[in-house]
Structures are given as C-alpha cells and as structure tokens.
Design a protein that fits this description.
The longest helix is centred in the N-terminal third of the chain and has 23 residues, at about 5-25. The protein has two domains: about 1-90, RNA polymerase sigma factor, region 2, helix turn helix motif (Rna Polymerase Sigma Factor, Chain: A, Orthogonal Bundle); about 95-165, Orthogonal Bundle (Arc Repressor Mutant, subunit A), CATH 1.10.10.10. It has helices at about 5-25, 30-45, 55-75, 95-115, 120-130, 135-140, 145-165. Helix content is about 75%, strand content about 0%. Helix 4 (about 95-115) crosses helix 7 and helix 5 (about 120-130) packs across helix 7. The protein contains seven helices and no strands. It is mainly alpha-helical and about 160 residues long.
C-alpha cells in the first residue's frame, strides 16, 4: 500500500482525464465512475509494481482505466440498464480553467493525430478511444495481427514525440 497523500494528489491530477476515457468507453456516467473508483483502488494496491522503466505513469494509469472499462463493458453489456435517473451518479462539470486546459490538450492531440499515417491513426483511435483489442482491430481492418500491433506501437511513439515537442 502506498501513501494516502500521494494517491489523493494523483487523483486530483488525473481523475478528470481518466473519467473521460472511462466514459468514452463505457458510455454511461455511473459505470465510468465505478470504473474510475476500481482503477484507483487497483493503483493503491499495486503502486509498488509500477516500473518507470517500462513507461510513463500516465500511460500506466490510462491502461488500468482502459482495461477496467473494457471489463465493465463486457459485464454490463449482458445486463439490462435501468432507466431510473436516481440510481446514477452526478456528472461533475470541470471549472473554466480545467476546460481550457482540456481543450488545449485536445487540440494538441488532434494536431498530432493528423500527422500519423492513416493506418496508424485508425489503429490508435480504435484501440485507445473505442477500446478494441489488437485482435479485434485486425479483424475489423482485415489486416494481419502483427501489422496492427506494429501500427499501434509506431503511432504511439510518433504521438509521444509530437506531444513532447
């Protein structure tokens, strides 16, 4: 178990972005909130396993949220959702400064995505926005699995380079 102060600070810094990712994948605010809670619990329990040599902390967090969200989609895809609005959580509105920051980040990401070749861009979006696995992307694009993995990896490296510049 890690430091409560560190976890709280991490939550303050990353929760809105990660909630947005979860919401994009699961499509329901109450499930996205559960995904986020489960992800931070996993981070709390496994913080000692994070290895900065293997990648950036933000990517590690995004991966945890993404996998939790995909699990939720599989789980809740088999359940009948309730139409009762009192059962869901409230969606929070970020303040103006946070919205401006998010918009600037979105513009930078859009600019960098446009620089990727079409196959890389499509694979990255299918994987990290729509939540498809490499195998599902390969099937969807009728492309070899190894090529899809390569396009995703090269696309992510190009995005990192572009966003750091």
């Amino acid at each position: 178990m890690g430091s409560r102060t560190a976890l709280k600070r991490l939550y303050e810094l990353e929760s809105r972005r990660l909630y947005g990712i979860a919401l994009r994948i699961v499509g329901r605010p109450e499930i996205a909130a559960d995904v986020l809670q489960d992800a931070f619990l996993q981070v709390w329990q496994n913080a000692k396993n994070f290895d900065p040599e293997r990648g950036a902390g933000g990517a590690w967090l995004t991966g945890i949220v993404r996998f939790r969200a995909l699990d939720a989609v599989r789980k809740f895809g088999r359940e009948i959702p309730s139409e009762d609005p009192t059962l869901g959580d409230e969606v929070f509105e970020p303040d103006v400064i946070e919205r401006l920051d998010a918009e600037a980040e979105a513009r930078a990401l859009t600019r960098c995505l446009r620089r990727l070749d079409d196959r890389q861009r499509r694979c990255v979006v299918l994987a990290f926005v729509d939540g498809f696995s490499h195998a599902e992307i390969a099937e969807r694009l009728a492309a070899p699995l190894g090529s899809v993995k390569s396009w995703v990896r090269r696309g992510l490296l190009a995005l990192r380079s572009c966003l750091e510049a």
